[in-house]
Design goal:
109 residues; alpha/beta; Nucleotidyltransferase, domain 5; 32% helix; 19% strand
Length: 109
């Protein structure tokens, strides 16, 4: 079973995928087989820098296999790579759209 995490503007499957990984308001963990999901606030320290690294650390606590997001800067991408978590960028639309796209591209044979 694959555990997906989608960065999102809101806490539901019908909210939009967050365009900027480091500024995601919510981290939504989705089981693409059952569509069960849990929304988690992406709590970050108030700072002008380091949002990608802090978001990556929050993601790591949720232990996903794959992260779906709009875009991630170099530091966020490198941190995810160091953590061994695959990141797929250029996702758009709703969280549901991103998960459906992942299913079509990676799970259906």
């Amino acid at each position: 079973m694959v555990k997906l995490l989608v960065t999102a503007e809101g806490p539901t499957l019908d909210d939009l995928v967050e365009e900027d990984f480091g500024h995601a308001r919510f981290l939504i963990v989705v089981d693409p087989e059952t569509w069960e999901f849990q929304a988690h606030e992406n709590i970050k320290k108030q700072t002008d820098m380091g949002h990608g690294i802090m978001t990556a650390e929050n993601v790591a606590k949720l232990k996903p296999d794959v992260v779906l997001t709009g875009y991630a800067g170099e530091h966020g991408r490198m941190k995810m790579q160091d953590l061994g978590i695959r990141m797929i960028m250029d996702e758009e639309g709703t969280v549901r759209d991103a998960v459906n796209g992942y299913i079509r591209r990676h799970l259906k044979k």
